Each structure stands twice: as C-alpha cells, then as structure tokens.
Amino acid sequence: MRALIAVRLSNVTDTTTSPARQRRAGQLWCKAHGATVIGEATDLDVSASRVDPFSRPDLGKWLAQPDDYDAIVFWRLDRAVRSMADMAKLGEWAKKHGKLLVFAEGPGGTALELDMRATSLVAELIIMLLAFAAQMEAEAIRERVKGSRSHLRHEGRWHGGRVPFGWAVVPNPNGPGYVLDECPESGPIVREIIRRVIAGESIYAVAKDLDEREVPTPIDREKHRIAQRAAAKSPESYVMPTGLPEKRKRWDHQHIAAMLRSEHLRGFTMHDPKATEKRSAHADGGEWEKWTGRPVLDRNGHPRRDRPALIDDETWAVLQEVMAKKKRAETLMRSAGSMLVRVAYCAGINKDGSVCDRPMYGSSRKATSNGKTLHDAPRIRTYRCTQRGTGHAVSVKADVLDKWAEEQFLKRIGHSHISVPVTDPGEDHTADLERVRESIRRLRRDRDAGLYDGDEDEAEYDEMMASLLKERRELESLPSRPAATRWVRTAHTVADMWHSADTEGKRRLLLDTGARITVTSGKHSGAGFDYSRLSFAIGEHDDPAAAALAALAAELEDEASTPPSLTRLTPEEHEAFRQDILDDIAHQEGLR
Predict the structure, then answer these.
(1) pTM of the prediction?
(2) Cα distances (angstroms) measured from residue 274 to each of 291, 292, 451
(3) What's the pLDDT at 54?
(4) Maximum Cα–Cα distance for the chain, whole Å?
(5) Per DSSP, what are the bridge partners of residue 44?
(6) 3-class secondary-structure state, position 70
(7) Which segments of 262-301 are extended strands (E)?
(8) Residue 264 and residue 190: Cα distance in Å, rounded?
(9) R_g over Cα of the chain
C-alpha cells in the first residue's frame, strides 16, 4: 500500500503540534501496517478553518493526483479539516477515488481508519460526527481567542500577533503578561525615517539608503523573532516554514508611507473590529478590503496609549501634513528621478500666438544618427513639453538643463544662510482642545459605523462622550495666549543643503524657493546648445537682491505686528540681522 503523509500547521510557533511530531506519527502508522511512504504534503502557516484541503499549497497538488497513492495519513482529524463542509468534500473525494483516510491519533489516542474504498454508511457517519466535533472545537477556540485578545487590549497588555515595527515585546512590569516597549534597534530607525521625511527627503531615497545600509525590514525582523521564539521553545523539533527567502527583503516605499500614516507611531493600540469578516470574505472569493484599524478607546473616550510613542502629537501633525503633500505630489510626478519636474516650463509659442506655459516632464529616447535610431546606444534623458498639436515641440537634454539650473540656483542664492523657526509656545491649549475634539469626532464616527449597537455598548458610549464633552468645556474656559514663531538665521547655507540632498530633495528645494525655469523652442546646430533659450527666476523676482529686500520688508512688517508680550529680537539684534542680509546682497552684487 502506498501512503501519503499530510502535515499541516496554522502557526509555526505552535510547538505542541509540531511538524516533526505529525511526521513521526504518520511514519509509525505506515511502518506498523507495511505501507510505503511515497511522499509528504506539508502546509505550514495554513489555517484549516479558512483553507480547505483542496486549496492548500502542497496537499492540493497531491489531491489532484489521486492515482499516485492509496491512503492519506493525518496525525489527527483537526490537521485535516475543521468544518463539516470540508470533511464532506474530502469524504466524497475519497469515496470517488477509493482512498483510505487515516488519522494516526484518533479518539482515545488509537488510530482511526476510514476505508472509503468500499461504500460504508457507518464510515460516512463517523466522518461527519468527527467533523462536527472538530468544527465545534474550532468555534470554541475562535471565541476564546477573540475574548482573550479583547480583554488584553483593554488591559493595555500585548495580545499577540505581528509586532509593530519600532517596538519589542517585554514582560509586563506592572503585572502578568507582556507589553510593548520601544525596541532599541528598530525604534531609532523609525525616528530616523520620520526626521528625514519631515526634513524634505523623499521616501524613495530613504528606502534606497536603508537597503544600501542593509537595515533589516519589518518583515525580516518579525520572521527572525518568530524563529527565535520557536527555537527557544523546542529547538530540536522546530522547522523553519517553507517559502521564506534566503536573502533579506528590500525596503518598500509604499510600506514606509503606510507606517508613517499609522497611528501606531503615537503609541495607540490599534484594532480593526471587522478584520475577521474581511479575511473570511476574501477567502470566499470576495474583493480584498483595506485594513481600517482604529485606536482602542479608554473609559474617557481617548485613544489608549499602552506603549511609548515614537512621535509626539505636534510632530505627528507636521508629519501628516508632509505626507499629504507627498501624496498630492505623487499624482503630479510623471517621471521619477527628474529634478526639474514642476520647475521647468515650456515657453513655446502656440498656433494662436500665446505662450504654452505648461510644465515639462522627464522622458528618455534612443540616440539617433542620420534620422535612424541607434538601438545599442544608451537612452538620452530629456525634458519635453507633452502638449501635442500646439505648433511647437520644445525639448532639451536633461543633463544640460539640470547642470545649468544647478549653476544658476547656487550662483543666485547658494551663499544665503538657512533660517530656522524659533517658536514661543505661549499659553495655548489649542493642541489639547483639538485632541479632545478629535476623540469626539472619532467616537461619533465609530457609533455611526455601528460599533456601539447594544445596550451595554450604548452605556459605554454615553459614558465616554460625557467625559469628553466635560473635558472640552474645561479646556474652552481656560485663558490662552497664541504661540508665535520668528525665523533665526543659521550658519548653514543653501549650497550646504543642496549638496547634501538627493534628486527629490533638490527638486523640493527649488520648489520651496520659488525657482522657475522657462525653455523656448530652438533649432539644433553644430555650435552647441543655445543657452539663450533658457531663463531662470527665483520667486516673483528675476533679481535676487530685490527678492531678498522684499523678504526683509515682509519680515520687518511681520515683526512690527508682533504683540509686545512675545519674545522678539532686541533692536541691536535686529539691526545686526538686517545688516547681515544687506551684506549678502552686496556680496551677490559683486559676483554679478
């Protein structure tokens, strides 16, 4: 008799039902019955509650080849199925193909052999009774796990699952169980990413740098954590799950963006109440629904902070503003790696005599010779106007325009010093008031979504809402003095920032300073590029001295309107600051 041993495990850290134990039980049965093992179907990290035998990666392939064996040996029934419907399908298949279904450790610990090679109503009845028991056990386990996780979440303890990147599981210092604390290895990586993105660096550049430094990704760290935990429990029987890549994963800009938009960073405990329904619907062939986790709320209606926050509320607001701008910018970008997108504009003349004034985008083409394309030659990067049928076709080599733009930009304002904001916090309760209002809005959205639909839930909602409204009234009654910001010049220059930035960083610097390049039409000639086709301006002024004077005038006007109670420059400091700007202008005039 030819036998196939089937091994399945929902969680590779579950050492009590380890693959090695299942394999040994199957081999012992085959040896005792003189059966020849012709293969093994191993499915790890596969749930029997969600995946039927025919849909499993390895067992499904074997079930499609029924002529290769006579019996399938499982360790126990729950390794095969956990629902009556799946057992019915498996029993019908075994009956159709005349197979022997073996459960090496059946009820009472003895082997259960269901011979489907001959019609047997008793065997079919036994199959359905055992499948009913397995399904009831699965439902009981699901309810216990759900209740346990809910209790742990509201207790502020770690409930298991994938650990959010930036934190580590540690023993609870205030009682039983475990909690999350900042990871000494990945926590600083998250803070570094936040700092660099807020500073204007692109997520692509951050991901590339992390890859070059070989920083482990969140997936790498999670798999390593699972492997360590399993090996610590049972090092002699642990089997690394199949399908894991030998090489580490690469950082993905989309995953980084999702991490930066997640309120995990604020130390909130996140939960999606409908996650199980979404997974089940997807498993049944439905469309995938995005995870829409929400913070778990405390009795006062505020999000629970059960772990150290990697970002404070003020920095979180700044980060989300930056991320919103990046999302809008992504819809405008048509060519990654082009420094002058939304900086260079077409100045070609349309058929009606008007100036085109449309942005130029990065492109590439093969080099040509005598009108023929040189397929073996490297591609030439260009900026070109994408508007068709206008009577002009403005384009310019990207290397030429990038170099010229850099020279013009640095010549004009490269020596200017970078100013940084210095904020007087004053006495402002706006942030606390907004936090409470956000909690009120969040609580009302949850109720509208049907998350508080029972009497007990309604009482909990009323209690939290009353607490939030009381807190809002108290904050609104407190006196407040708005914060103010003044700009102080640093020792760093625009040129310093330029040379340390990547392509996207330079593009952002050009946009932030109001740089604008226009390109007119031109004819190709052997005399080289005609730079008279190009013009460069900073902000509203072609003259950088005039731009600096306008900025100074705006600053003086703003300072004059500053309330005397706020921190401000002394007259001596102000005059020195003004003289520094005039010295910069004089220096620039000397270079012209």
Answers:
(1) 0.42
(2) 9, 9, 10
(3) 92
(4) 104
(5) 9
(6) coil
(7) 270-271, 294-295
(8) 11
(9) 34
